[in-house]
Design a protein that fits this description.
- The structure is a single chain.
- The chain is an alpha+beta fold.
- It has one domain.
- It is about 35% helix and about 25% strand.
- The chain has 3 helices and 3 strands, in the order βββααα.
- A 3-stranded antiparallel beta sheet has the order 1-2-3.
- A hairpin with a 2-residue loop joins strand 2 and strand 3.
- The protein is globular, with a radius of gyration of 14 Å.
- It starts with 12 loop residues before the first strand and ends in an 11-residue tail after the last helix.
- The protein binds zinc ion.
- Zinc ion binds next to loops.
Length: about 120
């Protein structure tokens, strides 16, 4: 896990979502600063490999975007429906789509998604 915030507090509050993907269990953590989501951390159950590197990188890019004022809902929409290379059918949702589902759950639990994204 890599902190992106330059002045990241020692402690951030967040929620971790467990998702089943064709690449194994995926854990998506959304941390907030003063009620705004500012950090996303992703961990695939199977460590190592390209899939793990991709979801970790995705989390870093999402964090940078959130910390530069991009609303979480805008980011979430970009991830919906992305097919995973291990996905064998349309019912089994891929890793990136599962990140979208976790972000959606976070948006819904924090009141609809108008907020999100720290002030740059
Ligand atoms: Zn995958």
């Amino acid at each position: 896990m890599v902190a992106i915030l330059d002045d990241r507090p020692e402690v951030l509050e967040g929620t971790t979502y467990k998702r089943h993907t064709p690449c194994g269990n995926l854990y998506v953590t959304v941390n907030s600063t003063e009620g705004n989501p500012t950090e996303v951390l992703c961990q695939l159950g199977k460590s190592g490999g390209c899939a793990s590197a991709w979801v970790t990188t995705m989390a870093r890019v999402l964090s940078v975007a959130l910390q530069n004022g991009v609303p979480i809902k805008k980011l979430q929409k970009q991830l919906v429906g992305v097919t995973c290379f291990n996905q064998v059918n349309t019912e089994e949702l891929g890793c990136i789509h599962q990140i979208a589902k976790a972000l959606e759950e976070n948006i819904n639990s924090s009141g609809g998604g108008d907020g999100g994204g720290a002030s740059p």
